[in-house]
């Protein structure tokens, strides 16, 4: 297979809020200069995402009436479930006027109540030599509706002063935005550096190639109220664009979208019927959109600097922290209303590198589990068929059947084979770093 999916055409990303009048999707041009012929529509009601549907765009557009009919046909059940939860009357169809009511919906009242005290949330953004995307990421916080937050930008082993100049220059007058520098390369090092500077009761993490939704922090906070011992909340990640085959392959394989249903996970009554639970912690979320009760995160020792981007282990630091939070007895909540938009890599070489990286990180993480929990080895061995099946189908929730280039499958397998050795090398490298730092304190 070539680096392009045969017959692929760019997909227009749109959001449709049905709690207000529904507008037509007007024709627009993609980045190649053509008119979009299809769209992925994220359908929201009272700002909460209900689902993503694919739409054909005849002549590049879709009238409002046709859009309303398609939304009702695909998501009518989810619409009425949301209305029942809000104590509102159910519908038999969706009109262009949208979903209306005489009083403020219960979900919005709950969001207002959750943020009434507005505890401080510290947002940690680790970055390295990507000041352009970081500027877009930070700019999105101008529209965030949560009133009490701080942002700690961690400049991780930078090769230039571009990030420092952005934060200390453009945001010099904003007391909410802070700059920190972490000389050790690695996402775990950077996140833990941010944790040292964070003062909030809650700690949220996102990436420098993400645009956060305006309700992101409010909805993360609501997630912590969905259980009696919630230590971590993760949220929905949707693509900013699907302009290339590589972005499409990434989105349908890599599992950023964990679905549109709230879930609570723990080792007790909320334990899912999954043979790989809690080891398959990719089911819980992704590191581009996660938050922790600060006391819970500190109690388990923060992020593991042996794992993750920037280390020899390549990835897996988010998988590891989810497992440790669950193992420590905390609950983990997946809250899709806490949403961010991720910019997938558009070119095939970058996608190939990501497949390899995820392959290495997955088995590096499993290697850490085996070494840290030797009694789990027999249980993991018994689940090898389930692990293989999971690895073959990818991680995306409700993913369509997609044929990937054979090269991507090969490089991911190559990464998985290297993962155990990568973890050991990364662990040894980390030990040497600690010994050196003790000898030559900063």
Relevant terms:
13 helices, 9-stranded mixed sheet, 3-stranded mixed sheet, alpha/beta
Task: Please summarize what this structure is.
With 442 residues, the protein is of the alpha/beta class. The chain has 13 helices and 12 strands.
Strand pairing plus helix content: what structural class?
Answer: alpha/beta
Can you write the helix and strand succession as a string? Answer: EEEHHEHEHEHEEHEHEEHHEHHHH
End-to-end distance: 51 Å
On the 0-100 scale, what is the average pLDDT?
A: 90
Which stretches of 5+ consecutive residues score pLDDT under 50? 395-399
How would you characterize the overall build of this protein?
The protein has helices spanning about 65-85, 105-115, 130-140, 160-170, 185-195, 215-225, 245-255, 295-300, 315-325, 350-370, 375-380, 385-395, 405-440, and strands at about 10-15, 40-45, 50-55, 120-125, 150-155, 175-180, 200-205, 210, 230-240, 265, 290-295, 330-340. The protein is an alpha/beta fold. Helix 2 (about 105-115) crosses helix 6 and helix 10 packs across helix 13 (about 405-440). The N and C termini lie far apart (about 50 Å). About 45% of the residues are buried. Mean pLDDT is about 90; it is low at about 395-400.
Which secondary structure elements does this structure contain, and how are they paired or packed?
Layout (H helix, E strand, L loop, with lengths): L11 E6 L20 E8 L2 E9 L7 H22 L20 H9 L6 E7 L3 H10 L8 E8 L5 H9 L6 E6 L4 H11 L4 E6 L2 E3 L3 H9 L5 E10 L5 H9 L9 E3 L23 E5 H6 L17 H11 L3 E12 L5 H25 L4 H6 L1 H10 L12 H34 L3
Helix pairs in contact: 2-6, 10-13
């Amino acid at each position: 297979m070539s680096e392009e999916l045969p017959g692929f055409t760019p997909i227009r990303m749109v959001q449709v809020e049905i709690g207000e009048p529904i507008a037509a999707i007007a024709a627009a041009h993609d980045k190649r200069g053509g008119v979009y012929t299809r769209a992925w529509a994220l359908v929201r009601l009272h700002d909460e995402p209900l689902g993503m549907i694919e739409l054909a765009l005849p002549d590049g557009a879709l009238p409002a009436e046709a859009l309303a009919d398609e939304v009702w046909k695909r998501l009518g059940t989810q619409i009425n479930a949301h209305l029942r939860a809000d104590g509102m009357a159910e519908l038999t169809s969706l009109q262009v006027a949208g979903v209306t009511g005489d009083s403020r919906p219960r979900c919005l009242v709950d969001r207002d109540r959750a943020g009434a005290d507005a505890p401080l949330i510290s947002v940690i953004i680790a970055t390295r030599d990507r000041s352009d995307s970081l500027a877009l990421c930070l700019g999105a916080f101008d529209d965030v509706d949560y009133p009490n937050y701080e942002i700690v930008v961690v400049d991780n082993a930078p090769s230039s002063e571009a990030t420092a100049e952005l934060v200390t220059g453009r945001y010099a007058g904003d007391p909410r935005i802070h700059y920190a520098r972490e000389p050790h390369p690695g996402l775990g090092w950077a996140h833990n550096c941010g944790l040292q500077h964070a003062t909030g009761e809650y700690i949220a993490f996102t990436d420098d190639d993400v645009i956060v939704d305006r309700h992101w922090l409010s909805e993360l906070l609501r997630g912590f109220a969905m259980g009696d011992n919630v230590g971590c909340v993760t949220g929905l990640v949707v693509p900013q664009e699907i302009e290339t085959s590589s972005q499409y392959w990434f989105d349908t394989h890599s599992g950023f979208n964990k679905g549109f249903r709230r879930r609570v996970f723990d080792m007790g009554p909320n334990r899912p019927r999954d043979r790989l639970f809690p080891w398959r912690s990719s089911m819980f979320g992704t590191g581009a959109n996660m938050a922790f009760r600060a006391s819970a995160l500190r109690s388990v020792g923060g992020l593991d600097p042996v794992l993750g981007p920037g280390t020899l282990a390549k990835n897996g630091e988010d998988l590891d922290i989810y497992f440790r939070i669950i193992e420590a007895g905390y609950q983990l909540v997946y809250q899709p209303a806490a949403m961010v938009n991720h910019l997938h890599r558009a070119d095939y070489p970058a996608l190939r590198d990501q497949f390899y990286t995820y392959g290495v990180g997955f088995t590096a993480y499993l290697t850490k589990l085996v070494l840290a929990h030797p009694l789990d080895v027999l249980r993991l061995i018994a689940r090898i068929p389930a692990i293989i099946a999971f690895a073959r189908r990818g991680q995306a929730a409700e993913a369509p059947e997609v044929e990937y280039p054979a090269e991507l499958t090969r490089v991911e397998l190559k990464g998985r084979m290297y993962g155990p050795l990568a973890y050991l090398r990364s662990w040894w490298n980390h030990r040497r770093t600690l010994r050196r730092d003790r000898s030559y304190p900063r």
